[in-house]
Design a protein that fits this description.
This protein is an alpha/beta fold and 224 residues long. 34% of the residues lie in helices and 11% in strands. The protein has eight helices and six strands; from the N terminus they run ααβαβααββαβαβα. The strands form two sheets. The protein has a four-stranded parallel beta sheet.
Length: 224
């Protein structure tokens, strides 16, 4: 029902597809798609993995579940397709980006360029029912994405994990903090943004870390 997982990710995650939780999840999704609209489209469910292969990941930004409006979700956390109104959380991310690095606020919400530069934009739940936030939580996706985080932590070094909000911060135990750099703050949603997201400078902190270990910084700009 999905396009195959990108090869470098499949090499470390293929066993997950034989496990009982995944069989149950696929059955659930099949039934959901028969009676409801589900986002994103099947071919985009694993876009975070296909756009950022395992050996190219430099930064991980964890989201929760996909946007649940028509045409919004396309498999990258916080990102929407061009032509779709920029969601409130992403508007706040852009405000912080501008404040932090003086990068002009983008005119659209598509973060594909970040993904292609090594920023894994991973939601912890990869599908959602139309207009029903959190509707696919605790159906099995969290087991799968936790495994992806664990494999990243184990197989790579000197990654930056950007954890926004309590649900993302709860994943910290999956990450080997002796090998990787953690940046935490409040979530960029309008309900939480003023409790420590604005002024947290995640983008410059990421680049300062990379510079401190002799690596090139991330280009956080987004083309119009």
């Amino acid at each position: 029902m999905f396009v195959p997982l990108e090869s470098s990710w499949l090499a470390v995650l293929q066993d997950e597809f034989t496990k009982e939780y995944m069989k149950t999840l696929i059955q659930f999704l099949t039934e959901e798609q028969h009676s409801h609209i589900v986002y994103p489209p099947n071919e985009e469910v694993f876009s975070a993995f296909s756009q950022t292969p395992l050996n190219q990941v430099r930064v991980v930004i964890l989201g929760q579940d996909p946007y649940h409006g028509p045409g919004e979700a396309h498999g990258l956390s916080f990102s929407v397709q061009k032509g779709i109104r920029v969601p409130p959380s992403l508007r706040n991310i852009y405000k912080e980006l501008h404040s932090d690095l003086e990068i002009p606020i983008p005119t659209h919400g598509n973060l594909l360029e970040w993904a292609q530069r090594g920023v894994l934009l991973l939601n912890t739940v990869l599908t959602v029912r139309h207009k029903s936030a959190n509707s696919h939580q605790k159906k099995g996706w969290e087991i799968f994405t936790d495994k992806a985080i664990e494999e990243l932590s184990a197989r790579r070094e000197n990654l930056v994990f950007i954890l926004w909000g309590s649900k993302a911060k709860n994943k910290i135990d999956l990450i080997d903090q002796t090998k990787h750099h953690i940046i935490q703050s409040a979530h960029p949603s309008p309900l939480a943004v003023r409790y420590g997201f604005f002024g947290s400078k995640p983008f410059s902190k990421t680049n300062l870390f990379f510079q401190s270990i002799g690596q090139k910084p991330i280009d956080w700009s987004i083309s119009s």
